[in-house]
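Weekly structure sync, notes
Attendees: PL, DS, HV (note-taker this week)

Item 1: Ubiquitin-related modifier 1
DS walked through the input record. Source organism listed as Lachancea fermentati. Sequence as pasted into the shared doc:
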Amino acid sequence: MVNVKVEFLGGLDAIFEKQRTYKLNVEGPDGSTVTVGDLIDYIVQNMIKNDKDKEVFIENDTIRPGILTLINDTDWELEGEKEYVLEDGDIVSFTSTLHGG
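Item 1 (cont.): predicted structure, written out as tokens:
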């Protein structure tokens, strides 16, 4: 199990009960390591209440294009994306760069 802080910014908080920051305890499927992929699965399964909102956050089993994902202020693409193994105290931020007009 890992304790992480998750932030939903750029309007994404609208699909997370208008709350921008969460402190989560997430358990991995094998009981030991927890990856960002496990965290994303947890978010989709447990935190998005409206099924229609899932397509705002997820596309093709990964974070939707237009959502900047940072792990400890570093682009997740530099950290291994969904394979990154989370550690206690990590901060994962999701920021939508798509804005309606």
